[in-house]
Amino acid sequence: MKYGWREGNQIQLLENGDQFYPAVFDAIEQAQQKIILETFIWFEDAVGKQLHTALLEAARRGIKAEVLLDGYGSPDLSDSFVEELTVAGVVFRYYDPRPRLFGMRTNLFRRMHRKIVVIDDRVAFVGGINYSAEHMSDYGPEAKQDYAVRVEGPVVADILNFVLENLPGQSAVRRWWRRHHRAIDNHRPGEAQALFVWRDNEEHRDDIERHYLKMLTQARREVIIANAYFFPGYRLLHALRKAARRGVRVKLIVQGEPDMPIVKVGARLLYNYLVKGGVHVYEYRRKPLHGKVALMDDHWATVGSSNLDPLSLSLNLEANLIIHDRTFNQTLRDNLNPIIAQDCKRVDESMLPKRTWWNLTKSVLAFHFLRHFPALVGWLPAHTPHLAEVEPPAQPALETQDRIQTEDAGGKT
After folding, report:
1. Which ranges carry the PLD phosphodiesterase domain (predicted)?
2. Domain 6-170+182-390 falls in which CATH fold?
3. What is the dihedral of CA 182, 187, 191, 195, to 10 degrees?
């Protein structure tokens, strides 16, 4: 099957769980035949229980539902929580579940980091939002800022075929990117062109990064990138700086209040290189940034699960939607510019790390690490990840059930 640009799509930007969860739960409620859901994190909290209820009700009315969770990101769902779904008929799988060693999770690399939902063959969701209460704005100061898209139109078939081809027992279909597929300028509102792209550890190792690089090469006026975990490869860093030096307004939004302190340390190692090269770097300080979005000029945009860090660009399974549409581009710009103006602090030269021998050494090491990371991945512990299906618990035989019901009716214990 050829995966290329698809015309005639309706794409809606969804900000945070406040917009994302109601849209997903409503789509699940409207499902007629099939639901496929992939996510990195599913917590057994208020949001997770709402998803549980939505899938349970769908399965009980005869909808075929399949769930794929990452074994690292979602290791703690209770047996009763999962069993209630499997008993109802939900196919429940974990990607690469592995036992803990001294209480530590060992499946650190090659995670299934995608966040995809497909309902029948008519609507899909792609983005970076997991299923947990921390994506809701009322969670408090630690609530995450994040994005997803709701999609209707021809590209849904590509997303559906992708998830189906990756289910166990499906014959692999060789998927090639046709480089001659190009997006053309689209002037029809509500008729967005879209391209579904993913990263795996086989034929599509650098597809998402390649589209970022192509975007930076083609940019003429403005680029805005908001990315939670920013520590990209050397090629992407060089492309950012090169775009800025030829006059493109390159705005980069990174975490200023990260959920993991090491994220801030890593990004700041790159500040000298980027800021002195003309890139406008902004630290988002209202709450933790979890988004993975970008836009270019007045027509190109992307929303997805891929961070711009070594894990996402070289190890994890990721998925993004690339959108060629002026209306969507402007919608995303109208969301990001107020964030820059109200919730970010621009990094100026006074905030750059001092030019000490120690800081210079760290920067040099960081750059060499980024330049050579893809080759270094080959030295990391490697195994073939597998999908483990959770079998529904064995049910009592029919005669035993009948006997129990008869005894209950007679008041016996």
Report:
1. 108-135, 285-312
2. Endonuclease; Chain A (3.30.870)
3. 20
